[in-house]
Amino acid sequence: MVRKREQEHVDVALAGTNVIYAGNATSRSTLDSADVLTTTELREAVANLFKTDGAKGSAPKYSDGRWVCILHGDLLIDLQSDTTFNDTVVRQNMAKLESDPLMIMDWQGIRFYAANLFPEWENLGDATDAGNAEHDTAATITLNNSPGGATFGDHSAVVITRKHKKRLFEEGIYIVDEQDTADAGDDNSLDVTVPDTTAGEYLYNVYAGSATNAEGAATARANLNLVESNLAGGASIATLTAPPSGGAAPPAAWTADASEQIRAALVMGPEFFAVAKLQVVMPFTVPGPDSGNVLNLFTDIGAKWRDKAVITDQDYGVRIEAHTNQT
After folding, report:
1. Which residues fall within 8 angstroms of residue 52, CB to CB, at 6 or more apart?
2. Structure confidence by residue, pLDDT tens digits, 98-116
3. Is the pTM of this model over 0.85?
4. Strand pairing of 156-164 and 110-115?
5. Alpha-carbon distance 151 to 171, whole Å?
6. In the chain, where does DSSP find H-type helix?
7. For residue 289, cis peptide bond before it (omega within 30 degrees of 0)
8. If you placed Cys at 195, which of 4, 92, 114, 138 could pair as Cys (CB 3.0 to 4.6 Å)?
9. How far is residue 166's CA from residue 147's CA, in Å, rounded to a whole number?
10. Domains recognised in the chain with CATH numbers
């Protein structure tokens, strides 16, 4: 339960609109292997928090007079190739670091923490179908001639994404597939089988809809909606005869290079992000297995937690995205 809550909170926090892309990149889709995290991006983030929108003043700091940076562990390793970073590390106040055992660095008015639950955006691909499976031929999408009023129209599209079972983030676009459904006489259905090639580490989401273009052309993913989520590897959806009438849309095309490995860091003050606790009930209990139970022993069987994470001010947080050379 705790990990699920953390994943949902991170998803919200990383949806902020104040973004810096490492190196020469101007968007996530333009990040390449040279665009790794350096102290240049960290200094730019500090400058953004100082000036915010130019009117409201600097982003508020935590009670110790600092902002916080939470970064993926891979980015921390990449930073070790930065001379300025290394020079700073050797001058750290050890007493200060020892007073906060989770802090790894204190620099430019920022406390740094490495995160073990951040997305690992990989295998991201663009929206153009190359005529079959974009990334993984283990996923199969079959077009059937199935009379009975299927409503995909002349063109259909399917996107399959993956989520690591432990991280839970929708991190990779596994396949983009488009079909000229008119080829089957406009009465058609789709059979979808998700991949089963990652040692059971991933779950899969399937999105489908009527494509805006013919097979082999880019399709606007806003036209697609979620069919099923959290499918185990190798699972199938049989005889899908119509696109969903609503529901979540698939993630945008993040990068045209499927080999890119993208990670994030978040630099923020306390008023950037908040979590409202709506309901807490923990734990649910039942009497222990001993029918005598003279000591009134109980066994915990679960818990309930309801909260809502929100970004309270976009100007008070900066997301940095960078390529990583770690595998």
Report:
1. 58, 59, 315, 316
2. 666 566 777 788 888 888 7
3. no
4. unpaired
5. 30
6. 2-13, 39-51, 73-79, 83-89, 94-99
7. no
8. 138
9. 42
10. 2-120+262-272+312-323 (3.30.1930), 125-240 (no CATH), 275-306 (no CATH)
